[in-house]
Every structure is written in C-alpha cells, then in structure tokens.
Amino acid sequence: QRILVWLRNDMRLRDNPALYNAAEAGEGVVAVYVLCEDFIERHSTAPSRLDFIRRHLRQMQTDLAERNIPLVLLRVRRAGEIPHQLLSLSRREGCHSLYFNAEYPLDELNRDRAVAEYFHDHDRHYKRFHDRVILPPGKVRNGQGEPYQVFTAFKRRWIQMARELPMVPHGLPAVQPKALGQVSDAGMTLDSLFRGVHLKDLSALWPAGEEEALSRLAEFADGPIRDYKSKRDLPAEAATSTLSPYLAVGSLSPRQCLTAALSANEGRWDEGSEGVTTWISELVWRDFYQHVTVDFPVVCKHKPLQGHTDAFPWRDDEEDFNRWRRGETGIPIVDAAMRQLLDTGWMHNRLRMIVAMFLTKNLRIDWRLGERWFMSQLIDGDFAANNGGWQWSASTGTDAAPYFRIFNPVTQSERFDPDGRFIRKYVPELARVSTRQIHQPPPVPGYPAPMVDLKASRKETIALFQQLNGSS
Ligand code: FAD
Asked: Exactly one of 237, 349, 414, 460 is catalytic; which is it?
C-alpha cells in the first residue's frame, strides 16, 4: 500500500516530516498538490506568491520524480471539494493513508478537519505532522496552562523548551528513492493548473527552490547574521536574511534556520554573537504568531484580538487609501516603502511597521484594509505574521504597540535611512534633494505635498483611543 502526501506550503524534500515519514513507512509515495480557487480569492494571495508557488511546484516535480515519487496536480473551485478529490485519488492509486504537515489559520484547519473526517468515514487513515513551527501550537503554556499573549513571556518559555529539543544537525534527511512511481492519472499539467490565474514573475529577484533557500541561509549564517542586531533596522543595507518568501512557501523550515543560527554561534543560545541571538528572537516571533492563530482563532475572523477596539472609528476614505497603496503620500519613507512592495513583492520589517502605523494612526484607515493589501502584494504573505504585524501596529492585538506610542515616520526615516539612500532608490523624484531635506522635502515638481498633518492626526488618534478605552 502506498501513502498519499498532500503538499501545501512545505515545498521541500529535506526536513519535511510528512514526506519523510511517508517514504519511511509506505511501500511508495504519491504526492498531490491542490490549487483552490476560492482560497486564492478569499485570502487575496499575491500574484507574485502564486508564481513563486508555481515555480516551486515545477522544481518539486523534478526533485520528486528523481525519487520515484509522482506529483499529481489538482484544481478545485471550493475547499469543500477537496475531501472527495483526495479520497478518489487515494483509491485510484492504492493509497491507504494521507499524510500532511499542519497549517494553522482557521480556514486551513477547517479544510483539513473536513478531509480527516471524510477519510476516517471511508476507512482510510490520515496523519498530521508539524513542520511550520519549531514548537507546535498548544505546547507553550504558562503556569496556569494558558496560552501567552505577551511575547517576552512566551519567548522565555519557548527557549526553555526549545533547548530540550533534539536538534538534528540538518533536520530530517531528504527522502530516499524508492521503487515504483507510476500513477494512472497524473491530473493536470502545471500550465493548466495555473490557467487564468493572475501571476507576476519576480524570478530574477526570488529564484525558486530548496537549493536557493538553503544557499541563502548558509550565506546569511556565514556573515551578515553577526551584524544583524546593529543593522537589521536599516532598509538600505542588505542586513536581514530575506528568507521570508522561502519560509512562507516552505522551501525552508524554521528548524533548519534555527539549526544554522545555533551552529553559527557554536551551539550557544544566550552567549556569543548578539546578532545570532537577536535573529533567533525573530524566529520566536514567527512561532508566536502561528500559535496566536490557533489559540485565538478570533483573529482569523477579521476581528481584533482586543475585542473592544472593534468599535474604533476608522475612516472610510478610498482616495487616501489609494494614495497610500500607490506610494504617493508625500512622506518619502512611506512612499519608498510602498513602492518597494509594489516593485519587489517584499518590504523591510522596519518599513512594514512604519507604513502600517501611518495608515492606521495618521490616516486612521482600518488595519484590515492594509492587511489585505499586503497579502495581495507580498511574495512572503503569511496569514499569521501579517495579521500579527498589522494588529500590533494598530494596537488591537497581542503585545500590541500601546496606542499612544505612534511612530513619527519622519523621525524614523532620519534614524533608519540617515543618508536617504533607500528613499532615493525608490522615489526617483527626490533623487536630487539634499540629505538634510530628504526626509521632509520642500516642494519638488512631480512629488506630492504631505497628505496629512502628522502631529494633528497623531493627537486626534490618541484622543479617540482614550475615549475607546474609557480613560479620557
Ligand atoms: P529576518 O529579519 O531575516 O528574520 C528571519 C525570519 O524570521 C523571517 O524570514 C520571518 O520568517 C521571521 N520573522 C521576522 N520578523 C518577524 C515578525 N515580526 N513576525 C513574524 N515573523 C518574523 N512576515 C512574513 O513572513 N509574512 C508576512 O506576511 C508578514 N507581514 C507583516 C506585516 C506587518 C505589518 C509587519 C509589521 C510585519 C510582517 N511580517 C511578515 C514580519 C516581517 O516583517 C518579515 O518576516 C521580515 O521583514 C522578512 O524579512 P527577512 O526574511 O529578511 O527577515
């Protein structure tokens, strides 16, 4: 009997528990990928991310074929069709079990539950593994057995637990070749799978595949990681790993990242390179937000984690929102950041916080609109990290920025892009403005004046939050 492995955002052979365990246990493996049109629409998946997935699937087809594992491609209109499609496939190909790696947003959990139940009802087995996090959700608990809402406390406990994990040096080995590898019906071709789907090719910036991901990780762990603490907030420097697209599509696992970081620090968790320990903290943030989506599923329902903030009077202003989206706000650092997103499908973390605060606190536009716009553009779009980042910036979530601590984008710009190098790269209209003036330029032909008074809007937002919290 063979085992069916359902690939989702885990597009790699190494350190892939579902694939590895299937290859170990079964008398052969069939892999399947299901494209769900409804999920693409409802989750606003970015065309750049869809193309990245497409390119990863092409690579996976080759890599799996070398190991005699066929990859079947299926397309459905709605997630509700998936249980039946997977069951028919497993019957046709003689697979008694279905293996997959967990995904944690509510839609995905519901989809997987429906598949599991359907398999159970039809006398077939399924097994779920955890690969998207270093410690699975539900495991990191406080003394009362409750989930953490505050990051620092979560991190302390997380590190205690992670230190006990058996760290396989390079994660699980790649799956081994096994005999047999034919399927009676290979499903669709890659071209037909994506027919009519809006794709954006960013392959020059973001080459696909596990080898690319591992070589970026090795390069980062070999050098830049050491200066990560001091340089990570400077968007003009190539100081962060840029691994997020690979982690999102799963051509890299967080465990591989942790292992590489620890070995760059001779296995030490809290001594040695501060760059390494700071970078590990980011991996903990990543786990934290994945856990939040499971522990507080309300965040998956377009709701704030802090329920009372749902009454905040967000402004409905399409024109202002469009100016922010296009990078035409008249605040140079915000515009440079928004154009980086449009051009590259990615944005530096410091800038994500700046533009999210600007939208929610200065323009007072609903964070959910910003969240959706990011998902529709980001090649690294990940529900948990994106929702967590937006709710943090809007002061509606776990560990949220206190409502009165509002970034001033001009001050942030002076501090983190001191010579204006980043601004000049993405806002050519300002290329000739002096460094002294670039953060808040005088009128420049072709470049808009600031669309909002930063001080007045900040004051107004704080007053509205005070009213909301009943503390005015
Ligand atoms: P590095 O600095 O090298 O960090 C290493 C890895 O740690 C990242 O690749 C990422 O997987 C993880 N990580 C780092 N910071 C965070 C964080 N704050 N929260 C969760 N994980 C983190 N990240 C996404 O992967 N997808 C998103 O859709 C996303 N949306 C965001 C939206 C907002 C408003 C904010 C403020 C942050 C968002 N982030 C998101 C987190 C962060 O900005 C990116 O992970 C980071 O910029 C990716 O660059 P890097 O790979 O060079 O990160």
From this structure: 349
Report the SS3 class of residue 170.
Answer: coil
Which of 286, 341, 346 to probe ligand 1 with, by most ligand atoms within 8 A of CB? 286
Indicate if ligand 1 lies below 6 Å from the C-beta of 374. Answer: yes
Ligand 1 centroid – CA 122 distance (Å): 41
DSSP 82-150: HHHHHHHHHHHTTEEEEEEE---SHHHHHHHHHHHHHHHHTT-EEEEE--SSSS-TTS-B-TTSPBP-S
Decide if 166 contacts 75 (C-beta within 8 A). Answer: no
Sequence-separated (6 or more) residues with CB below 8 Å from residue 354: 333, 334, 337, 407, 409, 412, 413
Please report, for the chain, the start and end positions of each structural domain, with discontinuous segments joined by +. 2-131, 132-171+210-295, 307-466
Q: What is the DSSP string of 284-324?
A: HHHHHHHHHHHH-GGGGGT--SSGGGGGS--B--HHHHHHH
- CB burial string 381-397: b at 16+ within 10 A, e below: bbbbbbbbbbbbbbbbb
Assess contact for 366 and 395: CB atoms under 8 A: no
Q: Is CATH 1.25.40.80 the right assignment for the domain spanning 132-171+210-295?
A: yes
C-alpha–C-alpha distance, residues 269 and 207, integer Å: 31
**Residue 242 assigned to a binding site:** yes
> Given the CA of residue 375, which atom of ligand 1 is nearest to it?
28
CB 294 within 8 A of CB 137: yes
Q: What percentage of the chain has pLDDT greater than the value 90?
A: 90
Closest CA to 236 of 398, 373, 408, 421: 421
Q: What is the pLDDT of residues 207-216, one digit of tens each?
A: 999 999 999 9
CB 99 within 8 A of CB 119: no
Predicted-complex ipTM score:
1.00
Compute, in angstroms, the gap from residue 71 CA to the centroid of ligand 1: 30
Residues 225 and 182 sit within 8 Å (Cβ to Cβ)? no
- pTM to 2 decimals? 0.97
Given a contact cutoff of 8 angstroms between Cβ atoms, the answer to whether 300 and 399 are in contact is no
Nearest atom (ligand 1) to Cα of 228: 2
* CA 397 to each of CA 281, 293, 307, 367, 457: distance values in angstroms, whole numbers, following the listed order: 19, 11, 9, 11, 22
What architecture does CATH give domain 2-131?
3-Layer(aba) Sandwich (3.40)
Model pLDDT for residues 108-138, shown as the tens digit of each residue: 999 999 999 999 999 999 999 999 999 999 9
Strand partners, 35: 75
Q: Which CATH superfamily is domain 307-466 in?
A: DNA Cyclobutane Dipyrimidine Photolyase, subunit A, domain 3 (1.10.579.10)
